[in-house]
Design brief:
Strands 1-2 form a two-stranded antiparallel ribbon. The protein has a two-stranded antiparallel ribbon with strand order 3-4. The radius of gyration is 18 Å and the shape is globular. By secondary structure, the chain is mainly alpha-helical. The chain contains 8 helices and 4 strands, in the order αβββααααααβα.
């Protein structure tokens, strides 16, 4: 079975690695300078195998993939009802940075677009920004089974150019979804998105969710 999956990902890798259409993301300036040719595939199984091909050890920032893991942390911290008071579960075909809020309550409609993700991040508790950041970092690291860190250059680039996310955060504050620490919540969100991972890290993070939080 493992050999079959390994052959499959090698075939997919060979089939698509020559496709060079498109461009790297540039909505955050620092992302525009990443290597467009880096490409890898990693598949982690729930019994501990990791099948890899290509540049699976090349670090990159987790960006919106972080939303799923922070959402799991929020559910663990305040429960489903507590999270749902801040953000809904409506399916969305909206862009990741769409200002998608309930017209009556101002509550974000979906936790996987930025408005909802910022609301979810606000639920991560701690005495201060440093403690909250460390809580996210240590949780992500335990999921990956590897020490992780924040890419400071990407974080600063996000913080300095994240005007739309800042506007979204203050709309959430206006509707009572966010409390008084708006800038701290937003800064934590920028830091969360700037955590460096590899394909292998992400594969094990997904496998750990699949085993109810037990690293394979």
């Amino acid at each position: 079975m493992v050999q079959s999956v390994e052959r499959m990902i090698e075939e997919v890798f060979d089939e698509v690695r020559g496709h060079t259409a498109g461009n790297v993301a540039d909505y955050i300036p620092e992302l525009a300078v990443v290597d467009p040719d880096a490409f890898g595939i990693a598949v982690a199984t729930t019994d501990g195998f990791c099948l890899e091909v290509g540049d699976t050890d090349q670090p990159f920032t987790i960006q919106s993939i972080s939303k799923a893991f922070t959402y799991a942390m929020a559910l663990d911290a305040v429960g489903e009802a507590g999270v749902e008071r801040k953000v809904g579960l409506e399916p969305s075909g909206d862009a990741f940075n769409e200002i998608s809020l309930d017209p009556k309550t101002g509550r974000p409609l979906n936790p996987m677009i930025n408005a909802g993700a910022i609301a979810v991040t606000s639920l991560i508790d701690g005495d201060n920004l440093g403690a909250r950041e460390q809580h996210i970092l240590s949780t992500f690291a335990s999921l990956a089974g590897n020490e992780l860190e924040i890419d400071d250059a990407v974080y600063r680039s996000e913080r300095e150019t994240g005007h739309r996310n800042r506007a979204i955060a203050y709309l959430l504050r206006n509707s009572g979804v966010l409390g008084e620490r708006v800038e701290e919540d937003l800064d934590l969100y920028f830091r969360q998105c700037s955590i460096r991972v590899t394909c292998r890290d992400l594969a094990f993070m997904g496998a750990t969710l699949a085993t109810d939080g037990v690293h394979p």
